[in-house]
């Protein structure tokens, strides 16, 4: 009943503010085309292609599968980590419980996005982009090591049984492109929807409570859609000394758009989201701190 009330409430908000809704959706679409698609699509295709081409190896040590999941998942951008872990779970390279834990660790923005978009375009300093990328992976690797210790403790999860290699009937590259297109559609849909929703709610809050529209929109868009949030923060908050740390915090929060993408992908293989939530809290707390000391 509550869900229905929320949905109808949002429908009326969109009807009452069609211009704001359109503007927010347009911002989300532009960000997806300019800031996400060029950085995300090539890596998703290559990651999927590699996973579909590589044969399952029954002799491979379990820790090597963890490293494989981290390397492929954490350097491709959101939500490549979820895609990688989900694909490895489908292939029985890791168990469902192992996948749920690795889902939390194999989650990071792509280096092309952080260095190219955030560092060069937002910070105007590629060095700061590198520092932010290092901070993110330092925090992620620490969490990954903790996860690995848990996975290999006395109460470790059962090892996944890898099936013997089978002859593939399809073409791995074409299969990779097909699967990647589904992920890209999911990313585009969530980015545009949550950008529009954030803009509508920001305008409502600003006009109702007499708050600064720019700051309100920055906060709400950061909660709903990360890329739109960092874009708005650049417009309204770039003059602050702590601006780089604010961007690090927004990227660590990720936004509901990315969390929704991960949840949809994880659901396809019944991966638990509880470790993922813990991992996000870990990142929100530590990434800005590590980034501060690196700067």
Automatic annotation (TrEMBL):
Q: Which parts pass through the membrane?
A: 31-51, 100-118, 130-151, 183-206, 242-265, 277-294
Q: What name has this protein been given in UniProt?
A: Sporulation integral membrane protein YlbJ
Keywords of the record, alphabetical order, are:
Membrane, Transmembrane, Transmembrane helix
Q: Which domain of life is it from?
A: Bacteria
| Source organism | Sporosarcina ureilytica
**The keyword Membrane appears for this protein:** yes
């Amino acid at each position: 009943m509550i869900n229905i009330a929320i949905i109808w409430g949002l429908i009326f908000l969109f009807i009452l503010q069609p211009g704001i809704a359109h503007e927010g959706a347009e911002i989300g679409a532009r960000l997806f085309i300019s800031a996400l698609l060029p950085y995300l699509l090539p890596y998703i295709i290559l990651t999927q292609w590699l996973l579909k081409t590589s044969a399952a190896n029954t002799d491979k040590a379990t820790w090597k599968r963890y490293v494989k999941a981290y390397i492929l998942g954490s350097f491709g951008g959101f939500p490549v980590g979820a895609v990688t872990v989900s694909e490895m779970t489908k292939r029985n390279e890791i168990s469902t419980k192992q996948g749920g834990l690795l889902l939390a660790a194999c989650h990071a923005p792509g280096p092309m996005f952080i260095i190219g978009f955030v560092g060069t375009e937002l910070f105007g300093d590629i060095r700061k982009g590198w520092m932010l990328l290092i901070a993110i992976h330092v925090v992620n690797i620490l969490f990954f090591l903790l996860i690995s210790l848990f996975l290999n403790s006395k109460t470790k999860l059962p090892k996944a049984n890898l099936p013997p290699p089978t002859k593939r009937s399809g073409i791995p590259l074409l299969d990779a492109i097909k699967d990647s297109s589904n992920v890209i559609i999911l990313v585009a849909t969530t980015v545009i929807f949550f950008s529009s929703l954030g803009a509508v709610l920001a305008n409502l809050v600003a006009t109702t409570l007499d708050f600064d529209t720019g700051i309100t929109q920055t906060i709400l868009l950061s909660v709903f859609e990360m890329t739109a949030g960092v874009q708005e923060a650049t417009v309204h908050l770039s003059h602050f000394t702590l601006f780089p740390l604010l961007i690090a915090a927004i990227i660590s929060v990720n936004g509901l758009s990315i969390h929704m993408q991960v949840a949809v992908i994880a659901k396809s293989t019944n991966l638990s989201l509880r470790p993922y939530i813990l991992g996000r809290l870990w990142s929100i707390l530590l990434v800005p701190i590590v980034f501060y000391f690196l700067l």
